[in-house]
Amino acid sequence: MKNNNVACNNEISAQHKWYHNLKYLLVGILFGIVFVKAEIISWFRIQEMFRLQSFHMYGVIGSAVLTGMISVWLIKKFKIKTLNGEPVTIAPKEFNKGQIFGGLIFGFGWAITGACPGPLFAQIGTGAFAVIITLLSAILGTWVYGYFRDQLPH
């Protein structure tokens, strides 16, 4: 099965040139600009949120959750397909206690560093180069999880 995936990925790679990814770079840059202008990457805004001093970040997060819920509902209701004509499938997920622990670790890291993975690159792009340490820590944490994943309860 793995060989089929590799062959399929090679076919996809052969069809798409490197410059086809420029659209993702453009969207990423625009997304970063929106993050900066909306003050989503502001350490002070994030601290206000965790200290329950401001509604700003809760409003942004709530809007994103609501948009996601409506989008998933529309995708399921109208059986929307990808640009390549493939059906969009959303796998059901079971709740487990690891999600609580993972969420707490994520939240603690977010509160301590003032950054979650999404805005890290926008923060670095604005010149907050100390955030590179947070980025490297996130990469290391992901690697450690991947290394020990089979030994962790799921």
UniProtKB/TrEMBL annotation:
Keywords attached to this entry: Membrane, Transmembrane, Transmembrane helix
InterPro entries cross-referenced by the UniProt entry: Sulf_transp_TsuA/YedE (IPR007272)
Transmembrane segments: 24-44, 56-75, 100-122, 128-148
Highest taxon in the source lineage: Bacteria
Protein name, entry field: YeeE/YedE family protein
Organism, scientific name: Chryseobacterium tagetis
Lineage: Bacteria, Pseudomonadati, Bacteroidota, Flavobacteriia, Flavobacteriales
